[in-house]
Design a protein that fits this description.
Radius of gyration: 18 Å
Structural class: alpha+beta
Helix content: 10-25%
Number of domains: 1
Strand order of the largest sheet: 2-7-6-5-4-8-9-11
Distance between the termini: 5 Å
Order of helices and strands: EHEHEEHEEEHEEEEHHHE
CATH architecture: Beta Barrel
Largest sheet: 8 strands, antiparallel, barrel
CATH class: Mainly Beta
């Protein structure tokens, strides 16, 4: 299984156009205004050239995360699943109670988090996480992360898995926009690359994945999306990458969205970053 590269090969370190007029906000301000760890999350796939229209005239209502002059940041997530890919299949089948496990590396800041995403019966997503010490493995559980996972799942009356293995890696760039009213947080992901073994699949460069995180109903951004003719999409970075890279897996739940935004799988272009097999 490929592990995250210190410098993933992605698109240039620039945010999607149309956000340069937004007020820069710090990470502390983002967390204060709209951390939204427990939230409803809706996803939209849209042409990158629609982003300027989406935030046109919104300078007084939205800010964009900026750290050291940058507004686009490298993320690398290693997903852990059971040998029979239980979390993938639970998601594909739309189970009301399910979870996802990953280690997420924020490459630009050198921070790595172990995260458990829990999906509740009412469609609410609750993400719990713990920061990992430098040098911690990202592709397997340690005694610390095993304890954190077991406690997190037990609180939701979910049985912890006996074994978790690395199942896929996703690298991408993210820009985060926050409503100054605290109504919503919007993430814009681009340059997505999924890896499994020595194969990769890439999101087309003219498409972005936009996620709206909120505690309420339709937000200002979503109303603008609807006015532009964009509707909510069924899409999961992990599930889409896995379904694309494993032809025997059924990915019907995301088939339409994958056809809209993903290229065909190919051999990994940079073999030094890959380890064959699972």
């Amino acid at each position: 299984m490929r592990t995250p590269s210190p410098t993933p090969v992605l698109s240039p370190a620039t945010a999607p156009s149309g956000l340069d007029r937004l007020h820069p906000v710090s990470l502390a301000e983002i967390n204060d205004r709209a951390a939204l760890v427990t939230r409803t999350c809706r996803k939209y796939l849209l042409p990158a050239d629609l982003v300027p229209a989406l935030f046109d005239g919104a300078e007084d209502a939205f800010g964009v995360l900026e750290i050291d002059g940058r507004t686009s940041f490298l993320y690398s997530s290693t997903y852990l699943d059971t040998p029979d890919l239980r979390t993938f299949h639970d998601h594909r089948q739309g189970r009301r109670l399910r979870y996802k496990v990953r280690t997420r590396s924020y490459v630009d800041t050198g921070t790595t988090m172990f995260e458990v995403k829990l999906k509740g019966a009412r469609g609410i997503t609750d993400k719990v996480r713990v920061e990992l010490p430098p040098g911690s493995p990202v592709d397997r559980l340690t005694w610390r992360t095993r304890d954190f996972l077991d406690r997190s799942l037990s609180r939701c009356r979910l049985a912890p898995p006996d074994v978790l293995r690395p199942s896929a890696v996703t690298d991408y760039r993210r820009t985060t926009v926050v409503a100054l009213s605290c109504e919503e947080r919007v993430t814009i992901d681009h340059g997505l690359v999924g890896y499994r073994g020595d194969w990769e699949v890439r999101m087309r460069p003219n498409v972005v994945l936009l996620e709206v995180k909120t505690r309420g109903g339709l937000t200002t951004t979503e109303r603008r999306l609807h006015a532009l003719g964009v509707r909510e999409a069924r899409f999961s970075k992990y599930a889409a990458a896995l379904a694309a890279l494993e032809p025997d897996l059924r990915g019907n739940r995301w088939h339409r969205a994958m056809g809209h935004c993903m290229d065909h799988p190919s051999r990994v272009r940079h073999p030094k970053d890959a380890v064959a097999g699972d």
